[in-house]
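#struct-help
A.M.: can someone run this one for me? Single chain, 103 residues.
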Amino acid sequence: MHAAVLRYFAAVARAGSIRKASEELHVATSAVSRQIQKLEDELGTPLFERLPKGLKLTRAGSLVLRHAELTLEEFDLLKGELGSLKGIKTGHVRIVALDSLLV
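D.P.: on it. Structure tokens below:
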């Protein structure tokens, strides 16, 4: 199981829709759908109830989401630590522009 699959799953769970999640992720809807199906097959249980108005997590899906979020958080921390070993600086940059300065 790859981190990308867990990110897709978490995005679908948050959005309640594969289409909305795929837009958020900038990934084809078919790719997200395929990865969710593969994850369900790998785990041997449905993670979503397919409803007319979207997707709802099953009990198994809620459990997987909790662990996926923890795993992704740890993975991001690991990437940051590995980046610091390579001397790569990470962080956030905030840019502010005043309307009066815009031409």
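A.M.: thanks! The chain has one domain: 3-85.
D.P.: also worth noting: The chain has a mean pLDDT of 90.
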